[in-house]
């Protein structure tokens, strides 16, 4: 039932109505709306019940193990939400002068400083509103850097073929062409191919480390040397920062610019698809180009730096400071964890991933890079199962839903056939991981004994498998009242 | 204090299953030289109780102000039910609905949102959100250039929010797109002097940054006659009262975009908010961001799923319509519940009450000697006042009285003189308006009697 189907003409949530004001007689009729918009007419309880029920149709971290690889679905501490929603924080207008926000700005400044330390970079801007916007900021800074040196010939961004789709898409938004670099059999970047690819056109290389294949790029020092010698800069995609938090700093690996995903590593809520936050960090030579505003501190007083302070900045990415409330949640998370807690994040995320990998291997699953350590995630490939039984990675993913687990990421990275990218995170217990292994074993057994059962999954969710082809061919993107 | 549930027994069992002696051994592929010496700028962790105390102190340091600033972010009452439901773990801690069968709650809500936004803007379709209004406008510009094909020139009125214009510049300038600024009539504060030549799209802000209502019908028809598209930049609250972009002129705007914050998102120092984008059916394949479609499951039961994903970066990579992935799902959840609670009548009353309060505020403030209205134009819920003294000094004096008195236009529009943009939404009472007027009168009066010593800003 859609909210519109609950609607009854003339029904209202009375307590949500401001007093009826006079009509806007001073606005010319030609500028006014004639027909009311299609919003539901419901009582408050109807609305609360409807959306509470909808919420119950979701899998979420708070209700299920959610090992969605590359998304770092770890527990979102409730304190982060409660404290970020203190009334004074919520009430402050973004354009109110900085003296009215010293408490908020102190948090932002301290977050900036902590992120510098964690990443080993010289400066950080909190502004980007998600990972992809952080990537944009990073590549735009690379571009600004080259142009400021009068080096306009660089037109390519190198991207390993295992990269997230956002990397090549970002390169194009920044006016570059994206050039793919292949991966070798062990999951590292193919160094010979990289050597052949770099040259005077190379603006930079975007690299995720550990990569989306769930392994640490061992040749990172050599990669940095090759790219830097060609005059390019090195971009760190922080999608997998959770794997190395407090153990390795991207700045120490030779990266010039990085973005972080605070909704992953700093456990701010994923919210059914955002909001995220994608702060960027840079080495010394890129500092002038950082996106504004930046938080500045002088003798205990905080203010935002703007165009006037930062004439070479790549500019503004949002009308304000970005996703302030997300940044506040990340700050609170960092204060809860502290230095020691951060070190332990990477340790236990890695322990969980390697344990789960070992147990699934023992259960008969093929591991894509079995001779490598898992980072915080790893890949199971179901190519052999598909050949033997016809059961695909998608089938296994859907059957996992019936067993009460959210599915891992499927069919990404694109390099590994029939893959499941599994990221357990540090907040899951051994007992949960064991239950997941049991479910996977059951599915493996079902695949061999009752393949149709697996192919028909899921059965226990609010709907069965959906017709995606119909959805794309017969577009139905808005509800229309019966004529 | 990490959120790690492992007992010592668990850890040793896990290590022995893996076949290593210690957790450190799991990092043996990382070259020794890269292992960091640890963190120095991150303080020791604190228990929740102490972090709570710290954050309460920080919040109190910010205090509470009687707010009359709008300028793209508007203070509206948010029903209690909105954020209580939004922060239910099932919405709060889920992610992008890649597994549709396990995400029907989020997906159905997004479909309902798309329906509401399409109707509110008078367009055919909506996406499931962008980051905010400013970056949404940049995406609309890119989309218009893709859809138009023949021109990379965008007409951008100076009556568009100055920060939005800077964001658009930052986000599209690398793609060889020309942004042509269009002047406004100093008398009416609305767009005029449209330039010659071919262009991909004209941006029509309604209401514009000054709060003034543009002649959207005429601008739309003019742009379409010249072969350009029209991007309507609109306030969603205003749309309950004003003609929606889909009905502007003879053919309607082609793309409608805007800041969704007024629909249930708190001001919160600037975010998270969300951008919305709607368009005509013909352009749906050029849209950036997630789109939800209704379909059926294998038993014929209706359900919802991500659709038209071939536009997106995770499929199309370098050829995607945008690099956007994570968007602002949770804010859309708030907006959908907000719009459902208010309904058509409630949202219209919010718009009317905001309009009426702003009219009253203007009437009170312009009675003060030295304060006048900058433009002769109908306004929605904002207006530009001209002062006979420095705006910064006045705002500072108001701040001392607990009032954030508006947005200083001096640096963005130096040609206007001492211009102040003020806003009064439905949240303001007669007493609030009176308080603002009395303080402003006193401050202005004092400055008229004897030029005061320059007020030293705090910073």
Summarize the structure.
Chain A has 483 residues and is of the alpha/beta class. Chain A is built from 16 helices and 13 strands. In chain A, the strands form 3 sheets. Chain A has a 7-stranded mixed β-sheet with strand order 1-7-6-5-4-2-3, with helices on both faces. A 4-stranded antiparallel β-sheet of chain A has the order 10-11-13-12, with helices on one face. In chain A, strands 8-9 form a two-stranded antiparallel sheet.
CATH class of the largest domain in chain A: Alpha Beta
How many distinct helices of chain A?
16
Structural class of chain B: alpha/beta
As laid out across the biggest beta sheet of chain A, the strand order is: 1-7-6-5-4-2-3
- Could you say what the CATH architecture of the largest domain in chain A is? 3-Layer(aba) Sandwich
Structural class of chain A: alpha/beta
Provide mean pLDDT of chain B, rounded.
95
CATH topology of the largest domain in chain B: Aspartate Aminotransferase, domain 2
Q: What is the residue-mean pLDDT of chain A, rounded to a whole number?
A: 96
Report Rg of chain A.
25 Å
Unreliably modeled segments of chain A: none
Helicity range of chain B = 25-40%
The helicity of chain A comes to 25-40%
Number of extended strands of chain A: 13
Q: Characterize the main sheet of chain A.
A: 7 strands, mixed
Distance between the termini of chain A: 18 Å
The end-to-end distance of chain B, rounded to whole angstroms, is: 36 Å
CATH class designation of the largest domain in chain B: Alpha Beta
In CATH, what is the homologous superfamily of the largest domain in chain A? Type I PLP-dependent aspartate aminotransferase-like (Major domain)
